[in-house]
Design a protein that fits this description.
The protein is an alpha/beta fold. It is built from 13 helices and 21 strands. Bound molecules: N-(aminocarbonyl)-beta-alanine and zinc ion (2 copies). The site of N-(aminocarbonyl)-beta-alanine has 8 residues, from loops.
Length: about 450
């Protein structure tokens, strides 16, 4: 039998181990896994790892936010994803209240379709939970939107939800099997600390860290968990940044609360001393980057299974946009690029440094995101019948990260100057090569919207 394409000679990786095998593709799916498979086109993977394409469930491309629009659009953002070995992304359709959530989903699809290089799903951001929003849920699930995000902050953006809304939304979405993702920061505390900083005349970048100490996250995380528990809901904490939050999560999961969480490379690798640099505003994101002790606990909680997902919260603002801060930390456009560097950083800093093994990496960036976001087993695994989303990864290729080597539409990387060992070589999305030998060969519009099922029950 001659298949359309065969990836030959590599080591195929899953969470349970690594096997020397060829992977055959017919049309858009994986057709066979075995030895000596024949294909019309052969991709040589000798000496390389063959991984399921990574899934990054947290991106904000072309997002109007903080008085500007994030600099990676659906083309440059998904091009960066492809170059970083990410074959599926999820973005957010944030409701513009009082309009229906579905209007935001339709608008976001119109922005993304035709531009995306890799496959994508959409979460819905809920900004005014009420009876009308609850009534929309069945249609949203039907449209493949099964996961939601609510914000405990961002009052000025008009996105903030109160505890009643959060409780009610947790209860109603769980009835359909969905989950509420939550941006957990305590707005009242942050407002208080910002007022106190103002009284002291503090406006520099480090004030961002000073006004968002760990309690501003940990209190919100434990409140959201308690609301979830009482509502019999399903909760997913996005961009968890502190060690204490991860410990609170661990306790809650041990007593059976249906709560899950992600952290991001910036919280594992960057510390808040960076705010003191001249370009400190480039690192401004919410929640803020933290301390080395937080990083240590987060790595440990990734390894022990407490934190189930690594994602990026990509929300790119270039140096010109970041310059809008003009010396006042409150005016920093909050967010940073990241989708392109997530997998190599996790491989180099996680696997190569012995913080977790390769199987755990596959759980964190492929299998758990596919399961928790309703894409399993279509995505996140190299299995017969799954989409042929595949990454040939060179475990020995060494790169010192710098913006000029990256495809993201940004003139800096928060990880500039970091040397990593292990870098993506060739990426396939549903059988089509979108990056070959580190050259982008993808096409705008090849990516498809993924109608997601409700998350797999744990
Ligand atoms: O600062 C951040 N994280 N910007 C993106 C929006 C969000 O809160 O995820
Ligand atoms: Zn957020
Ligand atoms: Zn985000």
């Amino acid at each position: 039998m001659r298949y359309d394409k065969v990836i030959k000679g590599g080591r195929v990786v899953s969470s349970t181990g690594t096997t020397r095998a060829d992977v055959a593709i017919t049309q858009e799916r994986i057709a066979a896994i075995g030895l000596d498979l024949e294909g019309a086109e052969v991709i040589d993977a000798t000496g390389k790892l063959v991984l399921p394409g990574a899934i990054d469930v947290h991106n904000h491309f072309q997002l109007p936010f903080c008085g500007t629009v994030s600099a990676d659009d659906f083309f440059t953002g998904t091009r960066a994803a492809a170059m970083g070995g990410v074959t599926t992304i999820c973005d957010f359709a944030i409701q513009s209240k009082p309009n229906p959530i579905m209007a935001a989903v339709e608008a976001r699809r119109a922005e993304a379709d035709g531009k995306v290089v890799v496959d994508y799903g959409l979460h819905a951001g809920i900004t005014d939970w009420n009876k009308d929003r609850a009534a929309e849920l069945p249609a949203l699930f039907e449209a493949g939107v099964t996961t939601f995000k609510m914000f405990m902050i961002y009052r000025s953006e008009g996105w903030q939800s109160n505890d009643g809304a959060l409780y009610s939304a947790l209860r109603e979405t769980a009835k359909l099997g969905g989950h509420i993702g939550v941006h957990a920061e305590n707005d009242d505390l942050i407002t208080l600390f910002q007022k106190e900083a103002e009284e002291q005349g503090l406006t520099g970048c480090y004030t961002h860290a000073l006004t968002r100490p760990t309690v501003t996250e940990t209190e919100a995380v434990s409140r959201a968990i308690q609301l979830c528990e009482a509502a019999c809901g399903r909760l997913y904490v996005v961009h968890m940044s502190t060690g204490r939050s991860a410990d609170i999560l661990k306790e809650a999961r041990a007593r059976g609360v249906d709560v899950h969480a992600e952290t991001c490379p910036q919280y594992l690798l960057l510390d808040d001393e960076l705010f003191k640099r001249e370009d400190g505003h480039h690192f401004g994101t919410c929640p803020p980057i933290r301390k080395p002790a937080d990083q240590e606990t987060l790595w440990a909680r990734l390894a022990d299974g407490t934190l189930e997902v690594l994602a990026t919260d990509t929300c790119t603002f270039n140096s010109q946009q970041k310059a809008m801060w003009q010396g006042d930390y409150r005016k920093i456009p909050f967010g940073m690029p990241g989708v392109e560097t997530m997998l190599p950083l996790a491989y180099s800093e996680g696997v190569r440094r012995g913080r977790f093994d390769l199987g755990r990496l596959i759980e964190l960036v492929c299998e758990a995101p596919a399961k928790l976001f309703g894409m399993w087993p279509r995505k996140g695994t190299i299995s017969v019948g799954s989409d042929a989303d595949i990454l040939v990864f060179d475990p020995d290729h060494q790169i010192t990260i710098s913006a000029d080597k990256l495809a993201t539409n940004c003139d800096y990387s928060p990880f500039d100057g970091m040397t990593v060992i292990g870098w993506p070589l060739t990426t396939l999305v549903r059988g089509k090569v979108v990056m070959r030998d580190r050259q982008f060969v993808g096409e705008a519009g090849w990516g498809r919207y993924i109608k997601r099922d409700p998350p797999v029950q744990h």
